[in-house]
Structure formats: C-alpha cells, structure tokens
Write a structure and sequence with these properties.
This protein has 13 helices and eight strands. The protein is an alpha/beta fold.
Length: 371
C-alpha cells in the first residue's frame, strides 16, 4: 500500500481561536495583505481580526474580492508587497488569498500558470506565507493546494494548483460561522458532504482519507439540519466546521469525482452556487455511478464503498428537500446545454477520481435527472 498525505503546515482549531491571529501573523513579519469579501457583512466581520493585527504590531492593507475570484483580480492582487497574506472569508476568499500569495512570489500574470486557458507553467517558488481563516463551513479550502478561479471571458472555472500553495496556518474558529444565514449554511454544508462522499469513493482513496471521510460524513448528517435551523447552536456549528475541514483534507489527498466535474462548468456558465449545484447533482451521479460499477466492475471494492454510503446519500436527498435546494433548471440550465457541460465535465481534473469511466450518454443522463 502506497500513499501520501499533505495538508496545511499547522492547524489551529477551536472556538475563540481567532484571538491568536495577530500573534500568528506577527510570526511571519510586519506587513500583511488581508483578503476579504466585498460585502458589508464581510467587512464588518473582519474588524476584530484587523484590530488583532494592529495590536500585535502588524501593518495591513486589505484586498477585496466579490464572489469567486477572477483571473483579472488575482493578477491585480499579485502585485502586492507583504510578508504574509491572510484569507478571511468563505472558500472563494481563501482561494483568492492562496492564488495571490503564489503570484506575489512567482510574478507575472496568473494566466502564465493556468492550464487549458493559460500557458501552464509550474509555480516554481513557494508562496509567500499564507494564513487561511474560514468564516463558512463548506469548502475546506484552508487545507487544500489549489485555488478555483473564474474566467468570465472563457465561461469556465479552472484551478491554479501546486503543493507549494498549501497554507502555512489553517485557523478554524467555528464561532466565526454562527452568523451564517440559513441558505449559506445549507449550500456550504452540502458542498462539504459532497466532497466527503466523493473522496470516499474516489479511485485515489486511502486509509487516512477513509477515516477522515467517515468521521466527517457522520458529523454533517448529525448537525447540518441543526445548524440550518438554529444558527447559534455552538455544537452543531463546531461539527460543521470540523466536517468541512475534513472534506478539504480528503479532497486534497483523494480527489473528487463526477459531481465536481459537473460543478465547475455549470458554475462557469451559470450564476449557480457551487454547493447547491453539488447537492442537486450528487444523488443522480451516485445512482448512475453505482449502476455503471455493477455492470462493468462487479465485485470491486468500489461497489462496497457505494453501499457503505448509500444511507448518507439517502439522508442527503431529504436534506435537499428540507433545506430547499433547487434543481438545476432554476439557474437556467436546459437540455440544450448538456453536450457542452458533459464535454467540459469529462475533461475536468475532478473526473480523474471518479470510480468508473462514465460515457457521454451517462453524463447527459445525470444532468437530465438533476434538471
């Protein structure tokens, strides 16, 4: 048995741990670039962090991103000069911080390093030290080695990816998620559950990711509905923060599958929340994958894994109803889009972890079921 496991250099987890942010940043230098969301809520939420930096003798400038980071925004952020970058926000903000930190040391335009739409050069230099502080419980971006960027020009999302992009510190404080609105609680939590399930059935799964996925799935099933209905439930919020954290570890080391293969092109082509797309697609991708394995790979370990998480997927279906997760058609997806989406999904990096090679007809079937 051979496998590797990579994650953030240091993980600081626990309620109230945001109080350590100033000291941690000071350990890397005196100048910080703080990457934030652009909303009034995001800026207000970050005020305690900025006060902590000042109290620790760290000068800072802020860099705001709206929604998912774009290629253009990252190129602009990469011109900053600082000792440490801090990403404070949801997965998109943390991805933006990771990408900016990489570009600051490697220089040039972010398109120099992107595959498919760019020149595909490797990131040869380690990123400037990066501290990831999530304020949602979904993507687990604080422990992954990639950043998802959008290119409106190409109508696609693509990842900037390198082992050197792993954060130096992942600071996870579940208290930062208590004010998350129910809708965001639902979509981010379902993204975490999808990542845990896909990593568990991935062809790259290993004993470490298996243990992490099992623990994470149990926590989501036990706590997502409570966090959705009672945002101030500290135990439920802590469970969801830990599950999301585990989902990031799992996907970084075991990969994902067809659901995330679809989520990237759908998110690039339509104004559709990532977690909601994953939740809408997962039950149908699960069913089609299971049938394909039964037909083409009977008796394989993959089928046993699917049977193990069958109840969790059933719970997800009910969660989607209870949490009011819409079908894909609500975002403007039609059958006319299926061929383009399926082609992009088949070529995506996420699809490499899918437990069986799906045909174009099977990919279109999943989309039709999710429509």
């Amino acid at each position: 048995m051979n496998f590797e496991f990579a994650t953030a250099a240091r993980i600081v987890f626990g309620a109230g741990k945001i109080q350590e942010a100033g000291r941690l940043a000071k350990g890397f230098g005196n100048r910080a670039l703080v990457v934030l969301g652009k909303s009034a809520r995001a800026i207000r939420h970050a005020e305690p962090l900025l006060h902590l930096l000042t109290a620790s003798g760290v000068d800072y400038t802020t860099f705001s991103v709206s929604g998912e980071p774009t290629v253009e925004a990252i190129t602009l952020g990469g011109q900053a000069r600082c000792d440490v970058v801090i990403g404070f926000g949801g997965g998109s903000v943390i991805d933006a911080g990771k990408a900016v930190a990489a570009l600051i040391t490697n220089g040039g335009d972010v398109l120099d390093y992107l595959e498919v739409i760019g020149r595909g050069k490797p990131l040869s230099k380690p990123s400037v030290p990066f501290i990831a502080i999530p304020t949602t419980a979904g993507t687990g971006s604080e422990v992954t080695r990639n950043a998802v960027l959008g290119s409106p020009e190409h109508r696609v999302k693509i990842s900037l990816r390198s082992a050197t992009m792993l954060p130096r510190v992942a600071l996870v404080d579940s208290e930062l998620t208590h004010e998350l609105p129910p809708t965001l609680t639902a979509t981010t939590g379902l993204d975490a559950l999808t990542q845990l399930i896909e990593a568990f059935v991935s062809v790259r799964a290993n004993p470490m990711t298996d243990a992490i996925c099992r623990e994470g799935m149990n926590r989501v099933v036990c706590s997502l509905r409570r966090a959705f209905e009672h945002g101030d439930d500290a135990a439920a919020r802590e469970d969801m923060s830990l599950a999301a954290h585990f989902s990031g570890m799992a996907l970084a080391n075991a990969g994902l599958g067809a659901v995330h293969g679809f989520a990237a092109p759908i998110g690039g082509m339509f104004d559709a929340p990532h977690g909601a797309v994953c939740a809408a697609v997962l039950p149908h991708a699960f069913a089609v994958n299971k049938r394909a394995i039964q037909q083409r790979l009977p008796g394989r370990l993959a089928l046993q894994r699917f049977k193990e998480v069958e109840q969790t997927v059933g719970d997800l279906k009910q969660l989607c109803v209870d949490l009011k997760i819409p079908r894909l058609s609500i975002y403007g997806v039609t059958e006319r889009d299926f061929d383009v989406i399926a082609e992009k999904a088949a070529a995506s990096n996420s699809m490499k972890g899918n437990p069986v090679l799906l045909s174009a007809n099977e990919l279109r079937e999943i989309l039709k079921l999710a429509l």
